[in-house]
Write a structure and sequence with these properties.
- This protein has eight helices and 14 strands.
- By secondary structure, it is of the alpha+beta class.
- It has one domain.
- The strands form three sheets. Strands 1, 4, 7, 8, 9 and 10 form a six-stranded mixed β-sheet that branches. Strands 5-11-6-12-14-13 form a six-stranded mixed β-sheet.
- It is globular, with a radius of gyration of 24 Å.
Length: 306
């Protein structure tokens, strides 16, 4: 079975994400995007085929014209996703179970925050290969981004996931050593002084622990991702728009997914609701739409609503 980030995190941290109900976000992408080790430690290198070699259709004693396909060598560096927990040394030492128990209690929050950052970066990234480029930039680069003409936001992504073509990346050496997330006490057991007021010179002794992970994204085909952008209340997606989207990504029900936030999924559901009527014995009116042309619709709350 594919290694999704959720499975990897559960194996690393174990169960238990208590007290995160009000701050957690659902990510359909991280439920289905498989991850594997980058090919070269902290970077991933691969060849992307651009054109195929030609062929000859010849008879006996006919000649063959030599041809070769073209391709390009691509490299994707892993991005550093990190956070720093800082606490009053006295508070941590007074926590039930001591300092280690305090930082352990804070770990689920840091992991949830990192997952949200990773999901957002997978969608939007920074636009370059030195961190996570992001699906949105890949769609723009490959001419697969279609604007609906509204305000920026509420984007819809169609992504075709495939092993060794479109997948997440991690540092294999670290993960194999059990360090999907590296936790390090950077202040030492004695703590460090933090300046609270530069005018009075007031300081506080704190303990600091960092949480770090290396994550990347490989998109190895021009049709791996397509987007509908600038979606808003006066520029809602139509069935024709969604058809354009899935065809641009060469979507297949077995390997492709449509990702959107809740507002946009409601608008898509409205396409169905506009065609529905309630009968005399009906007791349930629902506009829930789980698929479009066989392609699963996935909620991801890391796609901003505007």
């Amino acid at each position: 079975m594919a290694n999704t980030l959720g499975k990897l995190v559960k194996a690393w941290a174990g169960a238990g994400e208590e007290h995160l109900d009000d701050v957690s976000k659902h990510s359909g992408l991280l439920e289905v995007l498989s991850f594997r080790g980058a090919s070269h430690g902290l970077s991933d290198k691969f060849r992307m085929k651009v054109t195929l070699p030609g062929n000859s259709n010849r008879g006996l004693n006919g000649g063959v014209i030599p041809t070769s396909g073209t391709g390009k060598l691509l490299q994707q560096d892993l991005a550093l996703i990190d956070s720093l927990e800082e606490v009053d040394k006295t508070e941590a030492e007074g926590y039930p179970g001591g300092v280690n128990a305090y930082f352990k209690s804070e770990t689920p929050g840091h992991i949830e925050s990192m997952l949200q950052t990773i999901a957002y970066q997978m969608f939007y990234g920074t636009g370059n290969n030195k961190t996570i480029k992001g699906f949105a930039q890949y769609a723009i680069d490959n001419g697969k981004a279609t604007t609906l003409g509204g305000s920026a936001g509420n984007d819809i992504f169609c992504v075709t996931l495939k092993k060794n073509v479109c997948e997440g990346l991690y540092n294999a050496q670290a993960v194999n050593a059990g360090n999907l997330v590296t936790v390090e006490n950077v202040s030492g057991p004695a703590g460090v002084y933090k300046v609270l007021d530069t005018t009075t010179g007031e300081e506080l002794k704190v303990l600091q622990t960092s949480f770090e992970s290396r994550i990347g994204l490989r998109v190895g085909a021009q049709h791996s991702v397509a987007t509908l952008t600038n979606v808003d209340a006066t520029h809602k997606p139509t069935a024709a728009n969604l058809l354009t989207l899935i065809r641009a990504a060469k979507a297949k029900p077995s390997t492709s997914f449509i990702f959107a936030n809740q507002k946009t999924l409601d608008w898509i559901g409205g396409l169905k609701a506009a065609m529905m009527e309630m009968g005399p014995m009906d007791t349930n009116f629902t506009q829930f739409v789980g698929k479009f042309e066989g392609i699963p619709l996935m909620l991801d709350e890391n796609i901003p609503e505007v």
